[in-house]
Amino acid sequence: MSIVLGDCLDRLKEIKENSIDMVYLDPPFFTQRNHVSKTRDNSKEYMFEDCWDSIGDYIEFMKKRLIECHRVLKPTGSIFLHCDKSASHYLRVILDEVFGMNNFLSEIIWSYKRWSNSKK
Question: Are strands 33-38 and 45-50 parallel, antiparallel or unpaired?
C-alpha cells in the first residue's frame, strides 16, 4: 500500500490505467474562504485558500480529477470523496456523470458531538 501526496491531477497521470483498488480524495470544499490552522503548541501554522472565481471553475477543477480517478481505478475499485455541504450536490452530479449513477453505493455522514447537535 502507498499514499500519494500532491495535486492528484498531476500524480494520477503517472499511474497506470485500472491499477488502483481505492481512491480517497480530500479536495477543497468550495467554502470561498482562506483557512488557517495551528499545531496545538502553536509552533507551526498551516493555511490554504479555498476561493474560486465561480462554481463553474470549481466544477471543472473537480471533474478533471474525478475523470483521472475513474481511469486508474480497477473495475472493482472504490472511491471515497470527502466534501461538505458547500458543493456536495454538484460533486454528486459529477460523480454520477463520470462513474455512472448505478455505481453509487452509499454515503458516510459524520456526526460531530458538539454543542449544536449533542442531543441528536
Answer: antiparallel
Q: State the burial class of residue 62 (Cβ atoms within 10 Å of its Cβ: 0-12, 13-18, 19+).
A: buried
Per-position DSSP letters for the chain, written without gaps between them: -----S-HHHHHTTSPTT-EEEEEE-------EEEEEE-TTSS-EEEEEE--S-HHHHHHHHHHHHHHHHHHEEEEEEEEE---TTTHHHHHHHHHHHH-GGG----------STTTTT-
Which residue's C-alpha cell is 499511474?
Answer: 15
- At 11, the pLDDT band (50, 70, 90 cuts) reads very high
Give dist(CA 18, CA 53) in Å, integer: 34
Cell readout for 111 is 456526526
| pTM for this predicted structure | 0.83
Predicted confidence (pLDDT) at residue 96 exceeds the cutoff of 90: yes
**Sequence-ordered list of residues with C-beta below 8 angstroms from that of 114, at least 6 positions apart, any chain:** none
Q: Confidence band (pLDDT; 50, 70, 90) for 116?
A: low
